[in-house]
Amino acid sequence: MTSTTTPPAHDSRHFRDVLGRFPTGVAVVTALDESGTPVGMAVGSFGSVSLDPPLVEFMPARSSSTYPAIARAGRFCVSILGADQEDVCRTMATKGADKFAEIDWHPAPSGAPIIAGALAWIDCTTVQEHEAGDHLIVIGQVEQLSELRPTTPLVFFRGGYGGFSAPSLVAAPERDLIEPIRLAGLARHAMEQLAQEVRAEVIAVGDVAGHTVSLAVADSPGGDYVPTVVGYRTPFVFPVGSVFIAWDEAATDAWLPAAEPARGQGIAALDRVRRRGWAIAIGDVHYDQLERSVSRLFAHDEQASIATAMQRLDGGLFDLELERGATYDVRMLMAPVFGADGGVALGLMLRGFTQHLDSTEILAIADTLTATADEVSRAIGGGAHVPPPSRGGVEEVGRG
Ligand SMILES: Cc1cc2nc3c(=O)[nH]c(=O)nc-3n(C[C@H](O)[C@H](O)[C@H](O)COP(=O)(O)O)c2cc1C
């Protein structure tokens, strides 16, 4: 046994430091005051208390100037904040601010505001209030509740804001994954900005032992797609993975189909990827089948059906020539991130587009994507994409 001297429990700095080691989610408790004006406060002390009857609690400070109005209303609504709502939290934690001036909301059944963009809401009637030191413990009976957005929560930890990743969404740190994961970590910030800008899911894809592996994912705000599972691998099989093959001569032969005309199609596809600086895939029934198999992978062992679906993919729908003015069901765009050795270190992939895109829109998105990929290349010590010198002749819709 070691005996150490610790500051006393009533040392408030020490109390906050130690208790700050316990992470909390962040919620906003709202109500309408007597004049029908919305009031609200950010709380980390929200929690569930009882299932039968359904009770929840939160703990307002006695010094709160907002809580008395919530108490008088006798009803309140709790909105659970998402990882992208730090600004909402800051506003709702500012004493004296006009908290609802810039916040969208709609009424819960009780009339209390549900904060737009929240992950879920819980509408309650106040049933108990207990005194507890300089705080109160308020118990609410849950009247109605609902989930709103399938995204990750805002987390408060040691005085700072952060996010959450489920263990099942973190790739296993196998030796061959450590460096690609480190690089994907460096791309994180740029990926999040890109997801906001183009409103699609952004995935950092690595080349690990002959497989493409999703290493990190940035969510699109309001995206309507099944999220990519981090750690998921697919083998490099034509026509998938052209971004990695296009700059890797040694791997090209094994990737290209042996038989014509698929072989010629593959060579032309790689040429286009090198010239444009990005890859593209258009959807069809076989692509749908592949996506379904992939999304079921973690429920059942779907490796076999993934292999079958990949074999059925139509090479003609990957890295194809785009026709000016034509509209496409784009399923993925990917640009290379170059490492210090000049090889492709990562692919930055976009997916989850909510509508069909015409060739002009595709080129604009591809430009934003390649600009981000170039920025990440420079950040990890590599160079930007340089299109190979033109061999004259055909000019197509595209970069370079
Ligand atoms: C992450 C976070 C968690 C908070 N949790 C609580 C809480 O549980 N109880 C509380 O009284 N205040 C909490 N606050 C502070 C209040 O949001 C804030 O002081 C208060 O609402 C603003 O003053 P007002 O109530 O006088 O308007 C928290 C603030 C933040 C940023």
From TrEMBL:
Keyword line: Oxidoreductase
One Pfam match: Flavin_Reduct
InterPro entries from the UniProt entry: Flavin_Rdtase-like_dom, GAF-like_dom_sf, NADH-dep_flavin_reductase, Split_barrel_FMN-bd, Tscrpt_reg_IclR_C
Disordered: region residues: 380-400
Bilayer-spanning residue ranges: none
Span of domain IclR-ED: 182-382
Family: Belongs to the non-flavoprotein flavin reductase family.
Protein name, entry field: IclR-ED domain-containing protein
Taxonomic placement: Bacteria, Bacillati, Actinomycetota, Actinomycetes, Propionibacteriales
